[in-house]
Write a structure and sequence with these properties.
This protein is of the alpha+beta class. It has one domain (4-123): START domain (Alpha-D-Glucose-1,6-Bisphosphate, Chain A, domain 4). It has helices at 17-25, 27-33, 107-125, and strands spanning 4-12, 37-41, 44-49, 52-62, 66-71, 81-87, 94-103. Strand 2 and strand 3 form a beta hairpin. Helix 1 packs across helix 2. Pfam families: START_2. InterPro entries: START-like_dom_sf, START_2. This is SRPBCC domain-containing protein.
Length: 128
């Protein structure tokens, strides 16, 4: 398996950090925009799209700020995906920061997928 490349993306979003955190950290919140259905048992999350399932482990989270997952297929690898809420100290503008990894020839596709996911999140939040 070839080495994956880390990439980061920033999406300005019109929502309070407290509300956003509910959408990025809970199965019900993630089911609204990230996957069709999300189930969790402790630190293990199951994401369901079009009948296919992907499992991920919760690596870490900081209440109100960020959540980090590792796909089970990447077990033992340094790869993860993180969704972080960033608030500009001066303007109070809120952004969602995405950190993810993809194969070199899949980075653009992965970025487009995140753009679509965040677009769905903005629609759910009414901030599109």
């Amino acid at each position: 398996m070839s080495e994956k490349i880390k990439f980061e993306m920033e999406f300005p979003i019109q929502a309070s950090p407290q509300l956003l955190y509910q959408y990025i950290s809970t199965p019900s919140g993630l089911s609204e925009w990230f996957a069709e259905n999300v189930n969790s048992r402790g630190e293990f999350f199951k994401f369901i799209w079009d009948g296919s399932e992907e499992e991920a482990s919760l690596v870490s989270k900081k209440s109100g700020e960020r959540i980090k997952f590792r796909w089970d297929v990447d077990e033992g690898e340094p790869y993860f995906f993180e969704i972080r809420i960033q608030v500009d100290e001066i303007t109070k503008d809120v952004s969602i920061m995405i950190v993810d990894f993809a194969e070199e020839d899949e980075v653009e596709e992965a970025k487009m997928l995140w753009e679509n996911q965040i677009s769905d999140l903005k629609q759910v939040l009414g901030s599109a």
